[in-house]
Amino acid sequence: MDPYQILGACSWRVPAECNLSWRRWQDEFVVYDSASGNTHVLDLLSGSVLSALEIGPSTISSLVSGLQALFPEADQNTLESQIARSLQALRRLELAEPDPQCA
Fold first, then answer.
1. How far apart are CA 74 and CA 93, in angstroms?
2. CATH topology of domain 3-94
3. Where are the domains of the chain?
4. Rounded to whole angstroms, how far apart are CA atoms 37 and 72?
5. Are 83 and 45 in contact (CB under 8 A)?
6. Measured between alpha carbons, how far is 83 from 10 in angstroms, rounded to an integer?
7. Pairing outcome for strands 12-13 and 20-25
8. Is this structure's pTM higher than 0.85?
9. Could you report the per-residue pLDDT of 24-48, keeping only the tens digit for each?
């Protein structure tokens, strides 16, 4: 099984050690993590994904369902792959992680 399929089936979440503060300007988010001291500028999709994960763990499928109305021009497959890329980027920034049983 390829890594995308494995991670796509997992729940994603904001790491417990993150303590996020938000600001939104038009289609961008600025996120400050007081635990790490890092500030990040996120596009609309990545900020929306992170915001959803801050509410609670989600799979890619549930994120697609929840964000489809915000991105009506994107078909489901396109939005799914864009969300998967956003999750990987958020993971590199240490703002999101897959469930430890899947990683």
1. 25
2. Outer Surface Protein A; domain 3 (3.90.930)
3. 3-94
4. 35
5. yes
6. 13
7. unpaired
8. yes
9. 988 999 999 999 999 999 999 999 9
Q: Tell the burial category of 69 from Cβ atoms under 10 Å away from its Cβ (0-12, 13-18, 19+).
A: exposed
Structure tokens at 24: 């939104």
Q: What angle do CA 24, 29, 32 make, to 5 degrees?
A: 105
Pair type for strands 38-43 and 97-98: unpaired
3-state SS track over the chain: CCHHHHHHCCCEECCCCCCEEEEEECCEEEEEECCCCEEEEEEHHHHHHHHHHHHCCECHHHHHHHHHHHCCCCCHHHHHHHHHHHHHHHHHCCCCEECCCCC
Question: Half-sphere exposure (CA, 13 Å, Cβ side) for 36?
Answer: 15
